[in-house]
Specification:
Strand content: over 45%
Number of strands: 18
Order of helices and strands: HHEEEHEEEHHHEEEEEEEEEEEE
Largest sheet: 14 strands, antiparallel, barrel
Helix content: 10-25%
CATH class: Mainly Beta
Number of helices: 6
Structural class: alpha+beta
């Protein structure tokens, strides 16, 4: 019998999910972004993140801003693998608090700024029924047992997975106005990464009909682990008995009994033992002589031992698996920027260099062997080129455009749960348009649209980690209560284009998996000029 459970343990890896940005990066760093979606040419307080060089356009003084977003994201996976009990899987992320903070001190030609927020990840994904990559291995057990003449038609299991990930970023920038038209900036962001994975696969049960392994195996639902363990014991017994009987026949031949003596000439108990043992191996002993029977029993013993080893491996493979691990690491992101002001037109450019990030495992429980305590893995954040244009069409209307390119091709993304290298065909690109309109001197409304195009290959995609194209709409308002205090609020909705990946299973043929996602965000923020 071939090993039935190739990888029940699965791979408990949760790739950090961006809510607005590239594969990994969060660019939804302010309520103004949520209500407008295009902020790369900002000269307001959130320029700390989006356009640091533009901060020199603020009036002298000290500014502080605090924002929070409430985020709801749903991931859906549909697998057409034919043996699954269910074909639809859902992962839900709810983030009540997604905070960002900004501070700026502007003095003449200089602006010094600080920012803080979740630059990647930021939530917990819960998969209450697991994922196809877990369950399809389990679902194959009945068919594979049946193919080995152990009739089995059903299975069930208890699967749960929860993963959280947040990369907190704290940044410092210095900006300088060379003249009235050109300003430059330079800074660094410190990234503190934290991933937590908790999950288990328990209570795998099947309904084999094979009384030879024990009286309980007559078609009822039983523990798969115990079934394989009993099978291991039974087959080891057959191997031992085959060797014992073969040794007895060999001893008789050594003692003078001709090897050509018919098996039927031996005592009935010996004939019965040989017949039953060879019958268990699928061999008919009728007409054998004792020399042939001895050699055949030896070969059968080896076969029983091999099958027993497979049963033992399957018993281990279907045993309860649990993971409880945390990964932490620190990295640095250097960044530079330039802002160009031309009358009614403002242009912002920013380049964030690749963040080299190594995560270290702190593992409490690892039933999979995938997270050795103290092991280190790379989780780099790609470099980003951001460009924006802001045009003041009238005193009341401002129109903006933004462009982001994430240099994903320069990052080693490792392998996916299917042991495929997660390759990138082209860099992730975002294009956004936004507009804000002043209804009064104190109140404005805004709206925006963003189109995001991922560049991942089909090999990248898996039920654990997938990146798909999307479009996002946002809207909101700003209310200036007085000369020092402003309130911002916005909502945005991201709609994703489902992506389908085809698979070929050596036993069960071709099937597809389809990946989907939806995100809704509500944001609120305040900006205050302290002096």
């Amino acid at each position: 019998m071939k090993k039935l459970v190739v990888l029940i343990s699965g791979t408990l890896l949760l790739v950090n999910s961006a809510f607005a940005g590239g594969i990994l990066t969060n660019t939804n760093q302010s309520a103004q972004f949520v209500r407008m979606l295009s902020r790369n040419a900002s000269t307001d307080l959130d320029a700390v993140y989006f356009n640091p060089a533009g901060l020199t356009q603020l009036n002298n003084g000290f500014y502080f801003g605090l924002h929070n977003q409430t985020i709801f994201q749903t991931r859906t996976i549909n697998s057409e693998f034919p043996l699954l009990n269910t074909h639809d899987y859902k992962g839900v992320t709810t983030i009540p608090a997604f905070p960002t903070a900004f501070a700026v001190y502007k003095l003449d030609n200089w602006a010094f700024s600080a920012g803080f927020g979740p630059n990647a990840g930021g939530g917990t994904a819960k998969y209450k029924t697991g994922l196809p990559s877990f369950e399809k291995q389990i679902s194959s057990i009945p068919a594979l047992l049946t193919s080995k003449k152990i009739p089995t038609s059903n299975y069930s299991s208890d699967i749960n997975f929860e993963g959280s990930s947040v990369f907190w970023g704290g940044q410092l920038n210095a900006s300088y106005a060379i003249n009235k038209m050109i300003s430059i900036s330079a800074g660094v962001r410190i990234i503190s990464a934290n991933n937590k994975y908790n999950g288990y696969i328990k209570n795998i049960i099947v309904n084999p009909t094979y009384p030879a392994f024990g009286a309980s195996y007559t078609g009822g639902m039983v523990s798969a682990t115990k079934f394989f363990a009993d099978g291991n014991t039974f087959l080891k017994g057959l191997a031992t008995n085959s060797t014992t009987v073969s040794t007895g026949l060999t001893t008789a031949i050594s003692g003078g009994t001709p090897a050509t003596t018919p098996l039927s000439a031996l005592p009935a108990a010996t004939v019965t033992a040989v017949t039953q043992l060879l019958g268990a191996a699928g061999i008919n002993a009728t007409g054998m002589n004792i020399g042939t029977a001895a050699a055949t029993l030896n070969a059968a013993a080896l076969g029983f031992s091999g099958k027993a080893a497979e049963m033992e491996a399957n018993s281990v493979g279907t045993a309860d698996k649990e993971v409880d691990t945390e990964q932490t690491g620190t990295g640095f992101t250097p960044m530079i920027g330039i802002d160009i002001t031309l009358d009614k037109l403002n242009i912002g450019l920013k380049y964030e260099m690749q963040t080299i990030l190594k995560l270290t495992n702190a593992t409490k429980v690892d039933g999979t062997g995938l997270f050795p305590n103290g092991d280190k893995t790379r989780s780099d954040i790609p470099a980003v080129l951001a460009a924006g244009i802001g045009y003041k069409a009238t005193e009341a209307l401002k129109i903006t455009g933004s462009f982001n390119m994430y240099f994903d091709k320069n990052v080693n993304w490792g392998g996916n749960v299917y042991k495929e290298l997660r390759t990138i065909d082209k860099n992730y690109v975002e294009l956004a348009l936004g507009a804000e309109y002043k209804l009064t001197d104190k109140f404005l409304i805004s709206a925006g649209y963003m189109n995001s195009n991922t560049g991942v290959s089909k090999q990248y995609q898996s039920d654990f980690s997938y990146s798909i194209d999307s479009y996002t709409v946002g809207a909101g308002f700003q209310w200036k209560l007085n000369e020092k205090l402003a309130l911002d609020a916005g909502i945005m909705k991201s709609t994703y284009k489902d992506d389908t990946k085809s698979f070929t299973d050596a036993t069960f043929g071709n099937y597809n998996e389809t990946y989907g996602k939806s995100t809704f965000v509500f944001a609120f923020g305040i900006g205050y000029k302290i002096f």
